[in-house]
Design brief:
Strand content: 15-25%
Order of helices and strands: EHEEHEHHEHEEHEEHEEHEHHHHH
Shape: globular
Distance between the termini: 20 Å
CATH superfamily: NAD(P)-binding Rossmann-like Domain
CATH topology: Rossmann fold
Helix content: 40-55%
Structural class: alpha/beta
Number of strands: 12
Number of helices: 13
Length: about 350
C-alpha cells in the first residue's frame, strides 16, 4: 500500500512501482484532499496491478478493514500535510494527519503483521525540515543530526518520525525512514515555489519572494527521489534512516532568476521580462535560513545518487508544465476534483460497501 498515492511525490512513486513491478499488487490510497489529484495517475489507472482506494489514514475502522481485506504486506507512507504556510495558518490539521494518522497506520500494521509470517516493511518518508536550520557555512544534515523543527509542519513530521521509531523499538515493527530535501518536478501542486511561479509567469502575475530571497534549499528532482524510495524499500536495512538530497543548493532568489530566464526563453519573451514580476514581501514567520542534505550514507550503502543537475531538471520541469497546460488549468480552477467523480466514484463505493 502506498499512502498519499495521488499527491506529488506519491504519484511518481506509485507510477514507478506499478510499471516496474507487475507482480506487485499496488493499493494506492489517498483521501483526495486539495493536493490529491487522480489526473496524476491517469496513465496507469487501467493497469491490472493497480487499485485506487479513497480513504483516510485517521479512520481506524476503515483502515483496519483495508489491511485485512487487501492483505497489506508492506506500507510506503507518503500521506501528509506538507505546506509550511498552511501549517502556520492551521497547525491542528497537520497534527491530526501527520502525527495521529501515522500512529494509526503503525498500530494497524503491527496488529496485522504480528499474526502473519513473512517479511514486511513500514517505510516512512519524511523531510529534512525536521532538523531545523543551518547557518550559511554550517555543514550538512546527516542521519545523526539532532532534531530541531521550527514550524508546525516540521514539528508534526518530526513527531511522526519519532512515532515510527518508537513502534520499531517498542514493538519490533519492521521500519525504515528517509528524510528528503525540497522536491520539484512534474505534477507538483502550484502552491510550492516552482510550479506557482511557472503559473504566475505564464499569467504575468506577481512573483512574491519572502524577505530578500536569501534562504537556501537543496533541490531534489522528484524522479530522483522516487528512484531513491524504490532502492530504500528494496535494499534499506530495517530500523535505519537515510537522507536523500539533490546536491543542488540554491538561494531562493537565484532559483527565481534562473526560472525567469528560462521562462522568457521558452515563451519567446524579452529577456528580463519575467524578472520584472518579482515582488519582495514580508518574510514568513520562523523561516529557516538553509537546508542541506548529506546523502553519503544512501550513496555508499545503497549505491543511490541523483541524476539531475538543477539546471537540467528545472528546464525539463518547465517544459512539462508548458506541455500540460490543461493539467495546470484544471488544478488552478479546481476542476481536477471532478476527475474522481467521473472515473472512480462508483468503483470506490463498491470497495467501501
Amino acid at each position: 500500500m502506498i499512502t498519499g498515492a495521488a499527491g506529488f511525490i506519491g504519484s511518481h512513486v506509485t507510477r514507478s512501482f506499478v510499471t516496474k513491478y507487475p507482480n506487485y499488487k499496488i493499493i494506492a490510497l489517498d483521501l483526495l484532499t486539495y493536493a490529491g489529484n487522480l489526473e496524476n495517475l491517469c496513465d496507469i489507472e487501467n493497469k491490472a496491478n493497480y487499485d485506487f482506494v479513497k480513504g483516510d489514514i485517521c479512520d481506524s475502522d476503515f483502515m483496519r478493514k483495508l489491511f485485512v481485506e487487501r492483505n497489506i504486506t508492506d506500507v510506503i507512507h507518503l500521506a501528509a500535510e506538507s505546506h509550511v504556510d498552511r501549517s502556520i495558518a492551521d497547525p491542528f490539521v497537520f497534527i491530526k494527519t501527520n502525527v495521529l494518522g501515522t500512529s494509526h497506520l503503525l498500530h494497524l500494521a503491527k496488529e496485522s503483521w504480528d499474526s502473519k509470517s513473512g517479511d514486511h516493511i513500514f517505510y516512512h518518508i519524511s523531510t529534512d525540515e525536521v532538523y531545523g536550520s543551518l547557518e550559511l557555512n554550517g555543514g550538512f544534515f546527516n542521519e545523526s543530526t539532532a532534531y530541531d523543527p521550527r514550524s508546525p509542519y516540521s514539528a508534526s513530521k518530526a513527531s511522526s518520525d519519532h512515532m515510527v521509531r518508537a513502534w520499531h523499538h517498542t514493538y519490533g515493527l519492521p521500519i525504515v525512514i528517509s528524510n528528503c530535501s525540497n522536491n520539484y518536478g512534474p505534477n507538483q501542486f502550484p502552491e510550492k515555489l516552482i510550479p506557482l511561479f511557472i503559473n504566475n509567469i505564464i499569467e504575468k502575475k506577481a512573483l512574491p519572494v519572502y524577505g530578500q530571497g536569501l534562504n537556501i534549499r537543496d533541490w531534489l528532482h522528484v524522479e530522483d527521489h522516487a528512484n531513491a524510495i524504490d532502492i530504500v524499500f528494496h535494499k534499506g536495512q530495517m530500523g535505519e534512516t537515510y537522507n536523500i538530497g539533490g546536491h543542488n543548493e540554491w538561494k531562493n532568489i537565484d532559483v527565481i532568476h534562473l526560472l525567469c530566464k528560462l521562462m522568457d526563453q521558452k515563451l519567446d519573451r524579452k529577456n528580463g521580462e519575467s524578472a520584472q514580476l518579482i515582488k519582495f514581501v514580508t518574510d514568513r514567520p520562523g523561516h529557516d535560513l538553509r537546508y542541506a542534505i548529506d546523502a553519503s550514507k544512501a550513496e555508499q550503502t545503497l549505491s543511490w545518487k541523483p541524476n539531475y543537475s538543477f539546471e537540467e531538471g528545472l528546464s525539463k520541469t518547465i517544459d512539462w508544465y508548458l506541455e500540460n497546460k490543461s493539467w495546470l488549468q484544471n488544478v488552478t480552477t479546481g476542476s481536477y476534483k471532478e476527475y474522481y467523480k467521473k472515473q472512480y466514484l462508483d468503483r470506490t463505493k463498491e470497495v467501501n460497501r
